[in-house]
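Fig. S4 source data, part A: sequence.
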Amino acid sequence: MRTKGDIVLARPCIEDPNLFIAESNFGLDLDMEMVCRILDELDVPERRCSIRLGVARFRLDDWQVMIYRKGRIDVRRVTDVDDAADAIGRVESIVSLAFQN
């Protein structure tokens, strides 16, 4: 289980300096084919997914999310660590079936 200490507010967003880009890691690899299928089935807005590159980008509420095959997650447009933890938790539940041991 991830703690708020595992989340880094890396830098301010370019479009709004009052918002941040949060970085974290799920600690497990992701099956990107499964991630892409899940995002397609849920018809997630603004989704772009590349199995070959191992990255998916999509919008979740006001957040812009990028997840990577090796488990890294970046969330743009967060207000603070609590907001980032909320976004990451929601993404984790959405892609939970795609985690690999």
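Fig. S4 source data, part B ends here. The first strand starts at residue 8 and ends at 12.
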